[in-house]
Amino acid sequence: MHLHKYERIWLLFGTGSLVVFLLIIGFGAFYKGAQPPSEKITIDPQNVEAQESFKKENLGLTKVEDGKYIVNVVASAFNYDLGKDEDGSNVKKLRIPKGSTVLFQVTSKDVVHGFELAGTNVNMMVEPGYISSYETELNETGEYTLVCNEYCGTGHHLMFAEVEVYE
Amino acid sequence: MSDQEEQRTWSLSKQEKRLSMSFMYVTFISLLIGGLMGLLQTLVRSGTFSLPWGIGYYQILTVHGVILGLVLTTYFIIGFQYTLMNKTVGMSHKQRQTAWLGFWVMVVGTIMASITILLGKASVLYTFYAPLKAHPAFYIGLALVIIGSWIACFVNFRQLQVWKKQHKGEKSPLLAFMVVINMLLWFIATLGVAAAVLVQFIPWSLGYAETINILISRTLFWYFGHPLVYFWLLPAYMAWYAIIPKIIGGKIFSDSLARLSFVLFLMFSIPVGFHHQLTEPGIDPVWKFVQVTLTFMVIVPSLMTAFSMFATFETTGRKKGFGGLFGWFKHLPWKDVRFLAPMIGMLAFIPGGTGGIINASNQLNQVVHNTIWVTGHFHLTVATTVILTFFGLSYWLIPALTGRKLTSKINKLGIIQTVIWTVGMTIMSGSMHIEGLLGAPRRSSYSTYGGTEQASDWIGYQIAQAVGGTILFVGILLMVYIFIQLVFFAPKGEEDFPIAEEEPDAEPTPRFLENWKLWIGLTIGLILIAYAIPFMDIIQNSPPGSPPFDWPIGNS
């Protein structure tokens, strides 16, 4: 098939840029480990407490060691269950020191939800039957809004919490 | 007589015109209803307006998505494609009857789904993610729309087949070839969503199945969800490749190149659905990456199209004697709305396509996934590139179908409409992109999120979206007015049906481009590579299924 000379150059340049771009993404994904959240761990959505991480007492923020934290969350319409504080009321805000490595583990016990810590790369789909997890370093102080970014019903926009990263 | 001369003499019969016009009526009614819903959404999200009479935000969001995303586009495309087929290869009496059957099946489905949504029984948005459970009539309605559209597919396939039999050894008319590619793409893609709806959703919503496998339903949905956007885009490409050159007084840049790019779209637009599922669990990251790579392949035919378009513009301008580096550009027929509207559509595809590359990238997706950036992206691609091209087509297509003339007054109104649309969309889509980068979610009603600082930063952009949305609604009212003028009031006469021709000395198109078995085979092969193993993996590793949930959407 005949291709014009300039068109050949254009396509070569375009396809070449694509290859370079894909190599960068592939390098990031397979060498640097920057993979999307893809834990293939299943769970019974009607009995999430059967899994150690999602027992009532293990929800919310847990310190594993210095500078290392785990946050376990059960999402449901229209709430993120972050456990209870000492007074027995629901936690709506987490406080985490700057520079911590935090592993977020989330599951849903009803419908599909989103889990996005606005302004960071923590952004996952939460689906009944699966555990979504993502580990990140929180290096900037500030107050971050945790929002449900996948439609989960008529109270969807009322589903949120807060994470404060302090000095 | 060569096939090109034949194209020019083939005129549309009264019955054929009526068939295509019925699709156009549904299109423009949808535009008005869907557009009004869009306006209301932007107003609600600005925080200054609440919906009366207990109407829910997510109810109108569902209407907006279903009516504009699925109904308007499908009807316009099928109606437009019938005229292209009838003009280039003709339509028999039997084919026309079958086409009408398809139309009515679609209409019944559309009405069923619409009533269910209006009664508040299906506020599940156009993605209807399980396990949110809508009323069964919603799923059955959607299934009928798809089945009706399949009838259109088979009519189009048959039209080309009959023509080929009568013209042994000739190459098929370019536009007929393109229509058949687009319908093949649609048919193969909708098999996925039809399987989900027929096998999973309908029995489950009727209570015959207790649970549903969420990940399978989502995978089948997105197997369809990405080709869907190419089903919208390809008719615009048909216009750019084969109609716009005629309007500017030029020739088709290259028949073979146009066919090759359509074949590449067929092959690379289907096996790519996982890039919509990058941030979800249950799918192996290696397969996500494989599909990201395949996704990037659709950029190649887009680059080819961009080159062809500008090559046509330049060649035509220079032939008319406009020299200098950009002299030809200045002398394009900017005052002809049939050119201006699609041209702005093309220009919008430059940032639109770039945003698409960002969305489909493995890690960048995590920054923008489900933020309002995505909404901004498809308002730039579908609601600008595709819709402005469809508007541009309407200015000659509707008069050609109704036997009227496009007057210079309507042409002027059309130019104003195009400018309004461009301004409105720039404001709305621009502020959506920025707000999304700041982390604001899509698909959410107005919320201050407990008054956090981040959420208060978002409100300003939402007010800007309401301003853009209002301007766009003015554009919709004007477009509907123009449609009514073109249908009922414009002076009677014959309007051109512009189909461009090849250069007289063009190189012959290679025959392998029309080897349907080869292209369909390769497409199926690629789908198997991209989906077979991960799909088995999803089934083998599946969690207990999900029971239906109707209360979160107010359907209990």
Automatic annotation (TrEMBL), chain A:
- Give the location in the cell: Cell envelope
Q: What is catalysed by this protein? A: 4 Fe(II)-[cytochrome c] + O2 + 8 H(+)(in) = 4 Fe(III)-[cytochrome c] + 2 H2O + 4 H(+)(out)
Q: According to its UniProt record, where is this protein mainly located?
A: other
Q: Name one Pfam family in it.
A: COX2
Membrane-spanning segments: 9-31
Top-rank lineage group of the source organism: Bacteria
Q: Which UniProt keywords apply?
A: Copper, Membrane, Metal-binding, Transmembrane, Transmembrane helix
Q: Which residues form the Cytochrome oxidase subunit II copper A binding domain?
A: 38-167
Q: Which GO terms describe its cellular component?
A: cell envelope; membrane
**Record carries keyword Transmembrane helix:** yes
**MF annotations from Gene Ontology:** copper ion binding; cytochrome-c oxidase activity
The positions making up the signal sequence are none
Physiological role: Subunits I and II form the functional core of the enzyme complex. Electrons originating in cytochrome c are transferred via heme a and Cu(A) to the binuclear center formed by heme a3 and Cu(B).
The protein, known as:
Cytochrome aa3 subunit 2
Q: Which organism is it from?
A: Lentibacillus cibarius
